Prior knowledge:
With 156 residues, this protein is mostly helical. Helices cover 79% and strands 0% of the residues. It has one domain (4-144). The chain has helices at 4-32, 36-43, 48-62, 67-92, 99-110, 119-151. Residues 152-156 have low confidence and may be disordered.
Amino acid sequence: MPSDEVLIQAGRITSNFVLLECGMTELTHMLLGVPRNIAKTVTADLSFHAVQALAVSLAKERVPGHCAELKKILRLMKRAEEKKDAVSCFLWGREIAGGRRRQERLQSRLHLDDGDLTMAELLDIAGEIANLVREVEQLRASMKKALGSASGQPRP
């Protein structure tokens, strides 16, 4: 069983990623430009990857000047999601089917040479995801401002 400190950091990684998902969903809701309850209805049954694809499509139409930044963030989010999943599987998936080959793949995703996660690596991953949460919020604010100036008034 992993130590309490490792479990705390794994929890930070997971909770930071949930905040990242929420931020991306809020960005998508804002880009939809419809009342919040309708935006929630549109995205309620979408996977996280579908929400991301919808955000890109909407950004191309509504704020094309922000598409490059959105795509950059989405690439970083994909890598962060891989790390989050690899940490979970590394901590709890060793006893699950897949054995040594699965563990080696996970180690390569996390760039682990010795097959072990250090506290510093866990802290780095949690911090990386927390930084992405801030980047998504900054991008959302910038897009909101651009949408407001394009129409002459702020958008939802």
